[in-house]
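Appendix B, record 7
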Amino acid sequence: MTDPVPTLHFNDPTVLVTLTGPDQSGVTTRLFADLEPFGVEVIDVEQLVVRGRLILSALLTVPDDRSHLESTVHDVGATFGLEVAVEYGTGDNRARRVGRSQVVILGAPLRPAAMAALAQRIKDDGGNIDRIVRMARYPVTAIRMEVSGADPDQLQADLAAVAFEQGVDVAVQENGILRHAQRLVVMDVDSTLIQGEVIEMIAAHAGCEAEVAAVTESAMQGDLDFSESLISRVALLEGVEESALDEVYESLTYAPGARTMIRTLKRLGYRFALVSGGFTHIIERIAAELDIDYFAANQLEVVDGRLTGKIVGDIVDRAGKAEALRHFAEQARISVKNTVAIGDGANDLDMLAAAGLGIAFNAKPLVRDQARTSVNVPYLDAIIYLLGITREEVEAADEADRG
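C-alpha coordinates (predicted):
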Protein backbone atom coordinates (compact mmCIF):
# COMPACT_ATOMS: atom_id res chain seq x y z
CA MET A 1 0.00 0.00 0.00
CA THR A 2 1.30 3.46 -0.87
CA ASP A 3 1.70 6.10 1.78
CA PRO A 4 -1.21 8.56 2.02
CA VAL A 5 -0.69 11.88 0.31
CA PRO A 6 0.02 14.51 2.99
CA THR A 7 -2.67 17.13 3.41
CA LEU A 8 -1.73 20.68 2.43
CA HIS A 9 -2.96 23.09 5.09
CA PHE A 10 -4.00 26.68 4.50
CA ASN A 11 -0.89 28.11 6.18
CA ASP A 12 1.64 25.69 4.69
CA PRO A 13 4.30 27.48 2.59
CA THR A 14 4.08 27.15 -1.20
CA VAL A 15 5.95 28.58 -4.15
CA LEU A 16 4.50 29.64 -7.52
CA VAL A 17 6.87 29.29 -10.47
CA THR A 18 5.84 31.02 -13.73
CA LEU A 19 7.61 30.94 -17.10
CA THR A 20 6.50 33.16 -19.98
CA GLY A 21 7.79 33.68 -23.49
CA PRO A 22 7.91 32.01 -26.91
CA ASP A 23 6.43 28.52 -26.87
CA GLN A 24 8.92 25.73 -27.60
CA SER A 25 8.91 21.98 -27.45
CA GLY A 26 10.33 20.52 -24.26
CA VAL A 27 9.79 23.37 -21.80
CA THR A 28 7.36 21.50 -19.54
CA THR A 29 9.45 18.31 -19.62
CA ARG A 30 12.65 20.13 -18.72
CA LEU A 31 11.05 22.16 -15.90
CA PHE A 32 9.59 19.19 -14.05
CA ALA A 33 12.60 16.97 -14.67
CA ASP A 34 14.85 19.59 -13.07
CA LEU A 35 12.43 20.00 -10.14
CA GLU A 36 12.32 16.29 -9.30
CA PRO A 37 15.56 16.21 -7.22
CA PHE A 38 14.14 18.83 -4.83
CA GLY A 39 11.51 16.42 -3.48
CA VAL A 40 8.73 18.97 -3.93
CA GLU A 41 5.08 18.13 -4.44
CA VAL A 42 3.20 19.49 -7.49
CA ILE A 43 -0.01 21.07 -6.20
CA ASP A 44 -1.35 22.76 -9.34
CA VAL A 45 -0.28 23.38 -12.94
CA GLU A 46 -1.70 25.74 -15.58
CA GLN A 47 -0.35 26.07 -19.11
CA LEU A 48 -1.63 28.35 -21.86
CA VAL A 49 -0.41 29.17 -25.36
CA VAL A 50 -1.78 32.21 -27.21
CA ARG A 51 -0.40 32.98 -30.69
CA GLY A 52 2.81 31.11 -29.92
CA ARG A 53 3.39 32.71 -26.52
CA LEU A 54 3.60 30.37 -23.52
CA ILE A 55 2.46 30.94 -19.95
CA LEU A 56 3.35 28.00 -17.69
CA SER A 57 2.69 28.16 -13.94
CA ALA A 58 3.41 25.47 -11.35
CA LEU A 59 2.40 25.68 -7.68
CA LEU A 60 4.77 23.62 -5.52
CA THR A 61 5.56 22.88 -1.92
CA VAL A 62 8.64 24.76 -0.74
CA PRO A 63 11.95 22.83 -0.68
CA ASP A 64 14.59 23.21 2.01
CA ASP A 65 16.98 24.87 -0.41
CA ARG A 66 15.01 27.78 -1.84
CA SER A 67 17.94 29.51 -3.51
CA HIS A 68 18.94 26.34 -5.37
CA LEU A 69 15.36 25.91 -6.65
CA GLU A 70 15.31 29.52 -7.82
CA SER A 71 18.60 29.21 -9.69
CA THR A 72 17.45 25.94 -11.27
CA VAL A 73 14.22 27.48 -12.53
CA HIS A 74 16.08 30.52 -13.88
CA ASP A 75 18.48 28.17 -15.70
CA VAL A 76 15.47 26.52 -17.39
CA GLY A 77 14.20 29.94 -18.40
CA ALA A 78 17.57 30.99 -19.77
CA THR A 79 17.82 27.80 -21.83
CA PHE A 80 14.55 28.55 -23.61
CA GLY A 81 14.66 32.34 -23.56
CA LEU A 82 11.76 32.62 -21.11
CA GLU A 83 11.04 35.13 -18.37
CA VAL A 84 10.82 33.58 -14.90
CA ALA A 85 8.92 34.65 -11.79
CA VAL A 86 9.16 32.88 -8.41
CA GLU A 87 6.66 33.90 -5.74
CA TYR A 88 6.37 32.49 -2.22
CA GLY A 89 3.10 32.31 -0.32
CA THR A 90 0.92 29.94 1.69
CA GLY A 91 -1.60 27.24 0.87
CA ASP A 92 -3.36 26.23 -2.33
CA ASN A 93 -5.60 28.32 -4.57
CA ARG A 94 -8.43 29.80 -2.58
CA ALA A 95 -11.52 27.64 -2.72
CA ARG A 96 -13.87 28.59 -5.53
CA ARG A 97 -17.03 30.13 -4.24
CA VAL A 98 -20.45 28.51 -4.54
CA GLY A 99 -22.49 29.09 -7.67
CA ARG A 100 -20.18 27.67 -10.32
CA SER A 101 -21.17 28.31 -13.92
CA GLN A 102 -19.88 27.88 -17.42
CA VAL A 103 -20.38 31.04 -19.48
CA VAL A 104 -19.94 30.72 -23.26
CA ILE A 105 -19.73 33.83 -25.42
CA LEU A 106 -20.21 33.75 -29.20
CA GLY A 107 -19.26 36.72 -31.35
CA ALA A 108 -18.85 37.36 -35.05
CA PRO A 109 -16.86 39.45 -34.47
CA LEU A 110 -16.16 39.53 -30.74
CA ARG A 111 -15.19 43.06 -29.65
CA PRO A 112 -13.23 44.15 -26.54
CA ALA A 113 -16.19 46.26 -25.43
CA ALA A 114 -18.37 43.16 -25.25
CA MET A 115 -15.80 41.29 -23.15
CA ALA A 116 -15.44 44.27 -20.82
CA ALA A 117 -19.19 44.69 -20.36
CA LEU A 118 -19.75 40.99 -19.67
CA ALA A 119 -16.84 40.80 -17.23
CA GLN A 120 -18.18 43.85 -15.37
CA ARG A 121 -21.66 42.30 -15.12
CA ILE A 122 -20.16 39.09 -13.72
CA LYS A 123 -18.33 41.15 -11.11
CA ASP A 124 -21.49 43.12 -10.27
CA ASP A 125 -23.34 39.85 -9.71
CA GLY A 126 -20.72 38.78 -7.18
CA GLY A 127 -18.96 36.41 -9.55
CA ASN A 128 -15.29 35.76 -10.16
CA ILE A 129 -13.84 34.59 -13.47
CA ASP A 130 -11.62 31.62 -12.56
CA ARG A 131 -10.58 30.61 -16.05
CA ILE A 132 -10.99 31.71 -19.67
CA VAL A 133 -10.33 29.52 -22.73
CA ARG A 134 -11.08 29.85 -26.43
CA MET A 135 -13.45 27.26 -27.88
CA ALA A 136 -13.32 28.29 -31.54
CA ARG A 137 -12.07 30.97 -33.90
CA TYR A 138 -14.38 30.21 -36.82
CA PRO A 139 -17.10 30.31 -38.03
CA VAL A 140 -17.54 32.38 -34.86
CA THR A 141 -15.24 33.30 -32.00
CA ALA A 142 -16.32 31.26 -28.98
CA ILE A 143 -14.92 31.95 -25.52
CA ARG A 144 -15.67 29.94 -22.38
CA MET A 145 -15.43 31.44 -18.90
CA GLU A 146 -15.57 29.40 -15.71
CA VAL A 147 -17.26 31.59 -13.13
CA SER A 148 -17.82 31.09 -9.41
CA GLY A 149 -19.66 33.07 -6.76
CA ALA A 150 -22.72 34.13 -8.79
CA ASP A 151 -26.17 32.56 -8.94
CA PRO A 152 -26.39 30.87 -12.40
CA ASP A 153 -30.01 31.90 -13.01
CA GLN A 154 -29.36 35.53 -12.12
CA LEU A 155 -26.18 35.48 -14.18
CA GLN A 156 -28.04 34.16 -17.21
CA ALA A 157 -30.68 36.88 -17.01
CA ASP A 158 -28.17 39.70 -16.51
CA LEU A 159 -25.65 38.55 -19.10
CA ALA A 160 -28.39 38.03 -21.69
CA ALA A 161 -29.29 41.72 -21.42
CA VAL A 162 -25.66 42.78 -21.77
CA ALA A 163 -25.12 40.41 -24.69
CA PHE A 164 -28.09 41.88 -26.56
CA GLU A 165 -26.69 45.39 -26.08
CA GLN A 166 -23.25 44.28 -27.30
CA GLY A 167 -24.43 42.21 -30.27
CA VAL A 168 -23.07 38.88 -29.01
CA ASP A 169 -24.63 35.64 -27.76
CA VAL A 170 -24.19 34.23 -24.26
CA ALA A 171 -25.18 30.94 -22.63
CA VAL A 172 -24.86 30.15 -18.92
CA GLN A 173 -24.97 26.60 -17.61
CA GLU A 174 -24.53 25.51 -14.04
CA ASN A 175 -21.39 23.43 -13.64
CA GLY A 176 -21.88 20.00 -12.15
CA ILE A 177 -21.58 16.33 -12.90
CA LEU A 178 -24.87 16.30 -14.84
CA ARG A 179 -23.22 18.48 -17.50
CA HIS A 180 -21.20 15.42 -18.55
CA ALA A 181 -24.18 13.07 -18.81
CA GLN A 182 -25.70 11.87 -22.07
CA ARG A 183 -27.97 14.44 -23.68
CA LEU A 184 -30.96 14.57 -25.99
CA VAL A 185 -31.12 17.38 -28.54
CA VAL A 186 -34.65 18.24 -29.70
CA MET A 187 -34.89 20.48 -32.73
CA ASP A 188 -37.52 22.39 -34.59
CA VAL A 189 -37.18 21.91 -38.35
CA ASP A 190 -38.52 24.84 -40.39
CA SER A 191 -36.16 27.85 -40.28
CA THR A 192 -34.00 26.02 -37.72
CA LEU A 193 -32.65 22.75 -39.09
CA ILE A 194 -33.56 23.77 -42.62
CA GLN A 195 -33.76 27.14 -44.32
CA GLY A 196 -37.30 28.27 -45.04
CA GLU A 197 -40.77 26.90 -44.25
CA VAL A 198 -41.92 23.63 -45.84
CA ILE A 199 -45.59 24.64 -45.93
CA GLU A 200 -44.68 27.69 -48.01
CA MET A 201 -42.70 25.51 -50.41
CA ILE A 202 -45.73 23.24 -50.83
CA ALA A 203 -47.97 26.30 -51.21
CA ALA A 204 -45.88 27.38 -54.17
CA HIS A 205 -47.24 24.34 -56.00
CA ALA A 206 -50.78 25.49 -55.18
CA GLY A 207 -50.16 29.08 -56.28
CA CYS A 208 -50.86 30.52 -52.81
CA GLU A 209 -47.34 30.94 -51.39
CA ALA A 210 -47.71 34.61 -50.47
CA GLU A 211 -50.98 34.06 -48.65
CA VAL A 212 -49.60 31.11 -46.67
CA ALA A 213 -46.35 32.95 -45.89
CA ALA A 214 -48.26 35.87 -44.36
CA VAL A 215 -50.18 33.55 -42.04
CA THR A 216 -47.00 31.64 -41.15
CA GLU A 217 -45.20 34.86 -40.18
CA SER A 218 -48.05 35.93 -37.90
CA ALA A 219 -48.13 32.51 -36.24
CA MET A 220 -44.36 32.43 -35.67
CA GLN A 221 -44.50 35.93 -34.17
CA GLY A 222 -47.16 34.69 -31.74
CA ASP A 223 -49.94 36.86 -33.17
CA LEU A 224 -52.10 33.87 -34.19
CA ASP A 225 -52.96 30.54 -32.55
CA PHE A 226 -50.67 28.01 -34.22
CA SER A 227 -53.22 25.20 -34.56
CA GLU A 228 -55.87 27.43 -36.11
CA SER A 229 -53.35 29.00 -38.45
CA LEU A 230 -52.04 25.60 -39.51
CA ILE A 231 -55.54 24.33 -40.29
CA SER A 232 -56.27 27.39 -42.41
CA ARG A 233 -52.95 27.15 -44.26
CA VAL A 234 -53.28 23.42 -44.93
CA ALA A 235 -56.78 24.01 -46.31
CA LEU A 236 -55.20 26.12 -49.04
CA LEU A 237 -53.15 23.10 -50.14
CA GLU A 238 -56.19 21.11 -51.24
CA GLY A 239 -55.62 19.47 -54.60
CA VAL A 240 -51.81 19.62 -54.58
CA GLU A 241 -50.33 16.40 -55.94
CA GLU A 242 -48.57 14.18 -53.37
CA SER A 243 -45.50 14.13 -55.64
CA ALA A 244 -45.02 17.83 -54.79
CA LEU A 245 -43.91 16.71 -51.29
CA ASP A 246 -41.09 14.70 -52.86
CA GLU A 247 -40.04 17.71 -54.92
CA VAL A 248 -40.02 19.89 -51.79
CA TYR A 249 -37.87 17.38 -49.93
CA GLU A 250 -35.35 17.24 -52.76
CA SER A 251 -35.09 21.04 -52.75
CA LEU A 252 -34.44 21.44 -49.00
CA THR A 253 -31.36 23.34 -47.84
CA TYR A 254 -30.00 22.61 -44.37
CA ALA A 255 -28.82 25.40 -42.09
CA PRO A 256 -25.05 25.95 -42.30
CA GLY A 257 -23.32 23.64 -39.83
CA ALA A 258 -26.36 21.39 -39.30
CA ARG A 259 -24.67 18.22 -40.48
CA THR A 260 -21.49 19.05 -38.54
CA MET A 261 -23.42 19.57 -35.32
CA ILE A 262 -25.40 16.36 -35.61
CA ARG A 263 -22.42 14.26 -36.72
CA THR A 264 -20.20 15.57 -33.93
CA LEU A 265 -22.71 15.14 -31.12
CA LYS A 266 -23.80 11.70 -32.36
CA ARG A 267 -20.17 10.61 -32.02
CA LEU A 268 -20.32 11.61 -28.37
CA GLY A 269 -23.44 9.54 -27.71
CA TYR A 270 -26.01 12.32 -27.95
CA ARG A 271 -29.52 11.41 -29.11
CA PHE A 272 -31.49 13.61 -31.52
CA ALA A 273 -35.17 14.27 -32.06
CA LEU A 274 -37.07 16.42 -34.55
CA VAL A 275 -40.29 18.01 -33.29
CA SER A 276 -42.03 19.91 -36.03
CA GLY A 277 -45.27 21.65 -36.83
CA GLY A 278 -44.47 20.49 -40.37
CA PHE A 279 -45.34 17.22 -42.02
CA THR A 280 -44.30 13.60 -41.56
CA HIS A 281 -43.80 13.01 -45.28
CA ILE A 282 -40.86 15.43 -45.14
CA ILE A 283 -39.70 15.00 -41.53
CA GLU A 284 -39.46 11.21 -41.74
CA ARG A 285 -37.10 11.44 -44.69
CA ILE A 286 -34.96 14.10 -42.99
CA ALA A 287 -34.71 11.90 -39.90
CA ALA A 288 -33.57 8.93 -41.97
CA GLU A 289 -31.02 10.99 -43.90
CA LEU A 290 -29.44 12.53 -40.78
CA ASP A 291 -29.68 9.46 -38.51
CA ILE A 292 -32.15 11.15 -36.15
CA ASP A 293 -33.44 8.91 -33.35
CA TYR A 294 -36.98 10.26 -32.88
CA PHE A 295 -39.41 12.58 -34.63
CA ALA A 296 -42.90 14.00 -34.28
CA ALA A 297 -44.80 15.99 -36.92
CA ASN A 298 -48.23 16.45 -38.47
CA GLN A 299 -49.78 14.01 -40.96
CA LEU A 300 -51.29 15.43 -44.14
CA GLU A 301 -54.31 13.56 -45.48
CA VAL A 302 -53.80 12.22 -49.01
CA VAL A 303 -56.57 10.71 -51.17
CA ASP A 304 -56.01 9.45 -54.70
CA GLY A 305 -52.55 10.98 -54.82
CA ARG A 306 -53.63 14.50 -53.86
CA LEU A 307 -53.71 16.50 -50.63
CA THR A 308 -57.22 16.96 -49.23
CA GLY A 309 -56.35 20.11 -47.30
CA LYS A 310 -56.84 18.32 -43.98
CA ILE A 311 -54.62 16.99 -41.18
CA VAL A 312 -54.95 13.46 -39.83
CA GLY A 313 -54.82 13.03 -36.05
CA ASP A 314 -53.69 15.42 -33.34
CA ILE A 315 -51.78 18.58 -34.28
CA VAL A 316 -48.23 19.00 -33.03
CA ASP A 317 -48.61 22.52 -31.68
CA ARG A 318 -46.81 24.58 -29.04
CA ALA A 319 -47.90 22.36 -26.13
CA GLY A 320 -47.43 19.25 -28.27
CA LYS A 321 -43.79 20.09 -28.91
CA ALA A 322 -43.04 20.31 -25.18
CA GLU A 323 -44.89 17.05 -24.57
CA ALA A 324 -42.92 15.37 -27.38
CA LEU A 325 -39.66 16.51 -25.77
CA ARG A 326 -40.64 14.92 -22.45
CA HIS A 327 -41.83 11.76 -24.21
CA PHE A 328 -38.61 11.33 -26.18
CA ALA A 329 -36.51 11.99 -23.07
CA GLU A 330 -38.41 9.21 -21.32
CA GLN A 331 -37.88 6.87 -24.28
CA ALA A 332 -34.15 7.65 -24.32
CA ARG A 333 -33.98 7.34 -20.50
CA ILE A 334 -32.42 10.77 -20.31
CA SER A 335 -33.37 13.32 -17.66
CA VAL A 336 -35.29 16.32 -18.98
CA LYS A 337 -32.57 18.39 -17.27
CA ASN A 338 -30.17 16.95 -19.84
CA THR A 339 -32.22 17.89 -22.88
CA VAL A 340 -31.33 20.68 -25.29
CA ALA A 341 -34.14 22.28 -27.30
CA ILE A 342 -33.53 24.47 -30.37
CA GLY A 343 -36.21 26.51 -32.11
CA ASP A 344 -37.09 29.86 -33.65
CA GLY A 345 -40.85 30.44 -33.45
CA ALA A 346 -43.49 31.20 -30.84
CA ASN A 347 -44.74 27.62 -31.03
CA ASP A 348 -41.30 26.51 -29.77
CA LEU A 349 -41.47 28.50 -26.52
CA ASP A 350 -42.96 25.74 -24.34
CA MET A 351 -40.37 23.29 -25.64
CA LEU A 352 -37.52 25.74 -24.98
CA ALA A 353 -38.81 26.35 -21.45
CA ALA A 354 -39.20 22.62 -20.71
CA ALA A 355 -35.66 21.70 -21.77
CA GLY A 356 -32.61 21.85 -19.54
CA LEU A 357 -31.07 24.21 -22.10
CA GLY A 358 -33.45 26.04 -24.43
CA ILE A 359 -31.79 27.84 -27.35
CA ALA A 360 -33.53 30.37 -29.56
CA PHE A 361 -31.77 30.04 -32.91
CA ASN A 362 -32.03 33.14 -35.14
CA ALA A 363 -35.41 33.53 -33.53
CA LYS A 364 -38.29 35.95 -33.78
CA PRO A 365 -37.99 38.82 -31.24
CA LEU A 366 -40.71 37.38 -28.99
CA VAL A 367 -38.87 34.08 -28.76
CA ARG A 368 -35.42 35.61 -28.36
CA ASP A 369 -36.66 37.75 -25.48
CA GLN A 370 -38.23 34.84 -23.60
CA ALA A 371 -35.63 32.12 -24.19
CA ARG A 372 -32.86 31.70 -21.63
CA THR A 373 -30.23 31.39 -24.37
CA SER A 374 -30.14 32.92 -27.83
CA VAL A 375 -27.85 32.25 -30.80
CA ASN A 376 -28.02 34.84 -33.56
CA VAL A 377 -25.29 33.69 -35.94
CA PRO A 378 -26.37 31.62 -38.97
CA TYR A 379 -24.21 28.59 -38.11
CA LEU A 380 -26.06 25.80 -36.33
CA ASP A 381 -22.81 24.12 -35.29
CA ALA A 382 -22.04 27.14 -33.09
CA ILE A 383 -24.32 25.41 -30.59
CA ILE A 384 -21.60 22.78 -30.13
CA TYR A 385 -19.51 25.34 -28.28
CA LEU A 386 -22.30 26.04 -25.82
CA LEU A 387 -21.99 22.39 -24.82
CA GLY A 388 -18.28 22.70 -24.01
CA ILE A 389 -16.82 21.21 -27.21
CA THR A 390 -13.97 23.01 -28.96
CA ARG A 391 -13.43 23.53 -32.69
CA GLU A 392 -10.16 21.60 -32.45
CA GLU A 393 -12.02 18.59 -31.05
CA VAL A 394 -14.52 18.74 -33.91
CA GLU A 395 -11.76 18.87 -36.52
CA ALA A 396 -9.80 16.08 -34.84
CA ALA A 397 -12.86 13.84 -34.88
CA ASP A 398 -13.47 14.64 -38.56
CA GLU A 399 -9.86 13.79 -39.37
CA ALA A 400 -10.09 10.51 -37.48
CA ASP A 401 -13.18 9.57 -39.51
CA ARG A 402 -11.41 10.34 -42.77
CA GLY A 403 -8.40 8.30 -41.63
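Remarks on this record: The radius of gyration is 27 Å. Residues 1-5 have pLDDT under 50 and may be disordered.
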